[in-house]
Amino acid sequence: MVLSAASYISKPGKVLKNRYNFMMNIFKKLFGSPAVLAQTKTAKQEQARQDNIKRINDNTDKLWKFIEEALLFYNEKSCQCAFPRFRQIVSIDCVDTRSSFYASETEGFISIGKKYFTSIKLDSGPEAQNELWTCNKCGSVYAFGWADFSIEVNRTFLKIQELKTTDIGAEPTLPIPLFVGIFGHKFPGKDQLIPVDFETFKNYITALKT
Description:
It is a single chain. 46% of the residues lie in helices and 21% in strands. By secondary structure, it is an alpha+beta fold. It has one domain. It is globular and about 60 Å long. Residues 1-16 and 26-31 have low confidence and may be disordered.
């Protein structure tokens, strides 16, 4: 049945109700009931969340494996201290930008790179944990700091205090490219950090001075 304009004017409430019922019937046939739609949406959201978690875990495994290779590369050429972009990555500190996050790249390089340093714990300092790290090859000295800001965010940094080698790596640039990236509650602007693909990060962190 086709409704005339007069029908819309004379019986607007009934027409709108019939139109609503008609549209709902169409949606039900195509997608199911509203309850089913909600369940489907929730299921899709959960699947998307699980897919994202898997992607992050896979990328992190790829990143940390590469970090081991990069550190070997540094020490074949000279040492990690001779690469300004290494020093840049390990010094990323959310406090410097009044933020609350940690960078997977920073944590990875410090955690895996610790074997290339000798560390001494300090009795006092601005962080929850304070240490001095000395490069086993060139003797450069770094301030190490660790602190937790919440149950989800704790960050580590390694900041150069005394450089005792000559740079052979390329100069750092801004924004800093990161492959896995940052996690937390409050983040700096894209003028500071930017997401990139794996090859871009790999080339950035191993580039030599020209």
